[in-house]
């Protein structure tokens, strides 16, 4: 039987810069490929470039660093065999975090933490599985559209508002929204502010 493999753009050790786990050292596995093509995407390079790796090569790379937390990101991880990758990492003893746009309803039951950041389309099933729903907010964001995500907020799921590209006008818009919706939280891309790779 052929071994599963994944097209990987990069694996690197850094600090989680945004959301609930800001400041946590972690290894990032950036999977290649994303069909969403958002205009504000800051990882467009990951949509095309990547090398095919099997589990052994991925685990070997992870073993170079002391962190036991791994963040699977992209690109869009759910466009590949994500349940198998999560399984490989969990079986090896890692704490697995996932960043996904939530467009594809995928089995993420073994992941320790699921962050769904909806873009043009999101699966309602994935919103229900999210620990965090991270909404990228820009001046052109349809504020009425945001209301529908608040319906998924519950004891299991926290909403974060993240200003698009850390622009001041988007930060101002997030603050205004948060003041009207105080159960949500602000997420800044601190790795960009601190110039951390
Ligand atoms: S869904 Fe995410 S990775 Fe894909 S194009 Fe949009 S911002 Fe980029």
TrEMBL record:
Binds 1 [4Fe-4S] cluster. The cluster is coordinated with 3 cysteines and an exchangeable S-adenosyl-L-methionine. Binds 1 S-adenosyl-L-methionine per subunit. Residues 21-197 form the Radical SAM core domain. Its EC number is 4.3.99.3. Mg(2+) binds at residue 43. Substrate binds at residues 15-17, 30, 73. GO terms for biological process: tRNA queuosine(34) biosynthetic process. It comes from the Bacteria. Catalyzes the complex heterocyclic radical-mediated conversion of 6-carboxy-5,6,7,8-tetrahydropterin (CPH4) to 7-carboxy-7-deazaguanine (CDG), a step common to the biosynthetic pathways of all 7-deazapurine-containing compounds. HAMAP family: QueE. Homodimer. This is 7-carboxy-7-deazaguanine synthase.
